[in-house]
Amino acid sequence: MKKRILTILAHGDDLAFGPTGTLVKYARQKVDVHLLIAVEKVDNTQTDGHFGFWEKEEIEKAASIIGISKLHFLDFQTNALSQVMLTKLTREIVLKILKIKPQIIVTLDPAGLSKNLDHLAVAVAVSQAFQKSADQNELNSLEISLKPYPASKLYHFIVPEPIQKRFELEIESMPDEKITAVIDVKPYFQTHLKAMHSQKNPNSEMKRLIAKLKCTQHHFEFFHLAEPAVSRRALKEIDLFENI
Asked: Gene3D superfamilies from the xrefs (predicted)?
């Protein structure tokens, strides 16, 4: 089976400090890289997007630069995911998993990297969808007639505490012991930066992040293996497809 990875994020701007380098890496390795953005409709009256909300065409441009094989959207609006029934959001994600059939699923950590309610809703829904997509009884309860599909691994993209302090970002970080995989993204750093420049009118926080990235260099991305659950590992993975 062809290697396939599905990354699920709430907003397009989550690519700014998300697993972008990792996606570029796998795209260059001819992995089938899928990106699912839960929010397609941007409410321009809302201003609490951490790095500024990206319009659909900006996300499409960034996806093209990254090398995304297929970009998917769910039909939800900014700041509305927390108001959507969790079952509805989970069902939509389950359907995508069953159709794409990825071995690897990546999403934000349970804290969502920030206190943004859309992030939290997606993190919870993805965790549930990972389990439900592999269970026929759960699919029946969701009124989905497709056959179950068990993805191999679910990873949470995380920001270690030292990185959070270095970049002086107001986001949730994780202690180093939570890290189970470290991906070397140094060769893809410039492509990551280019994708971030897809936003036409970046806000001050995005400009600050880009400047900080250029100064410090961003050579590694960090993940926690959420499913299957593991105890502390002696050695950290350097490939999300390890043992698949």
From this structure: LmbE-like (3.40.50.10320)
> Domains of the chain, with CATH numbers?
4-227 (3.40.50.10320)
What is the total residue count of the chain?
Answer: 244
User: Which CA distances in Å does 151 have to 35, 99, 106, 111, 135?
Assistant: 16, 12, 11, 22, 11
How does 13-40 read in b/e, with b if 16+ C-beta sit within 10 Å?
bbbbbbbbbbbbbbbeeebbbbbbbbbb
Which residue matches tokens 């701007």? 13
State the pTM of this model: 0.89
Residue 69 sits at the vertex; the CA angle it makes with 201 and 81, to the nearest 5 degrees, is 55
- Compute the distance between CA of residue 24 and CA of residue 29 in angstroms, rounded to an integer: 9
Give backbone dihedrals phi and psi of 36, rounded to 5 degrees, phi first.
-115, 120
Interacting residues of 18 by C-beta distance below 8 A, sequence separation 6+: 7, 9, 108, 113, 157
**At 29, is the pLDDT very low, low, confident or very high (cuts 50, 70, 90)?**
very high
pLDDT of residue 24: 98
Residue 157 · residue 9 · CB < 8 Å: no
